[in-house]
Request: fold
Amino acid sequence: MLPRFRLACGLLFVALLAFAQAGKVFWFFRKHVERQREKEAMNRVQIHWQLQNQFRPATLNWTPAQEGLISQPLDHFNRQERRVFNQRYWINEQFWQHPIGPVFLYIGGESSLSMYSVVDGHHVDLAKKYKAMVVSLEHRFYGASLNLDSLQDENLQFLSSQQALSDLAAFRHFITEKYNLTANNTWICFGGSYPGSLAAWFRLKFPHLVFAAIASSAPVRAQMDYPGYNKVVAASLSNPLIKGSTECLQRVREAFASMERKIRAGWLAKLSVDFHSCSPLRGERDCQVLATNLADIFMAAVQYNSAGMPLSTVGSLCNIMTNSSIGSPYRRLVVTNLVVLDNLGMPCLENSQVEIVKELRNASIEMSYLSFRQWQFQTCNEFGYYMTCEDPDCPFSPRMSLTSQLEICAQVFNISHRNVSEGVSFTNDYYGADHPKASQVLFVNGDVDPWYPLSVLKDESMSEPAILINGTSHCANMFSYRLNDPLSLIRARQQITSWVGKWLNLAKDPPR
Reply:
């Protein structure tokens, strides 16, 4: 009998950067992708368990991972602050060569973690090869790692990358004590997207605690205004390697230009009906949200290309946008939106800026599972990452402006334009942006990923190498092998495996 698996209230173990603007389609698209990937992980683990245990008793009680809570200080930098919170973690000792084997730390980010963070993925494949224990830590204030009042405005000050790194340091000490580890147990950390940045920064700031890091799709350079995101999206929509085309990009441009003409002509009632708006469009701000929601469809398909839903690939979207039998490019955009709403299980498109601000202001614990409020605060306070479309080469709507997105920071958190700019500057000064001057950090990116321009793309030094994978998108290297993986991705994983082996050997016999 197969073990009974629980789909955690959190979703897949890979935290993927969410949207940093008012539109919500990207957010729901992301959640759908995470669910699909967790199902894939569940199926792989079930099949592996069945193959490994087919001759063992059917009543075998298999526990692939231990789940636990560690008490963490709410503020690591103020010893007068006595409050704590419980942070969730997982441990998998299945492959560990006790007591001298290495420890692979999987870092959580702006989403819930589940037990699949320690039982599936390329880092787990590496753990099997190198006989490592796998541990993971959920990010503070996400998933189950928060107190009832964590999302109140006065407590969000404790949600930061600096606090998260200190959480990792405390967790490292906790595991060391729990298993009586020594200097012979080499620690390597792994992360993708924002956790990829955390992985690099953990090695940078705590080199005595972690020997090396694999930083996948890590946007280590914070940037308030980030038009580069949609430059990559445009290039990807026209990239034949991932089934895009110049015709597809042109039809997308034409569709959004047609929508813009209708907005300027005041045809808001028609737009509300055509795009199944949950409420009638009421003015400029709602039109900004509509434009962003529709752009989200294409942005998300590029970021999560080939991730497990009918419209999650560039090719599937381009099939609709180049299908002349549907009608004009505008009509094809209408159809694309309807199909996406149906696939995401959304009855309508939420285009009310008032409703979105209301939701972001909701500090109740019941809303924490969406991670909507938490990540928006982090972008306003530390990173920016606002994917604007004011560049004339952007294929979407210029209504996706920096001003419109910064308004959300002011309206929801009372964080001004200047405060956002200062926060971004501090982050880059504190970590070194895309020249972090770390050692034993491997940066891995795909050239279809809209976040790759903010990462480290060339070798910074002999011990700070970089891999850029042709034709792959966000965090593609972090998943276990799939039959349709391109050769470039297969070779990249081989390189990652080689680097991990080199570092483990170096830890055993460091240079004198």
Remarks:
- Confidence is low (pLDDT under 50) at residues 1-16, 18-22.
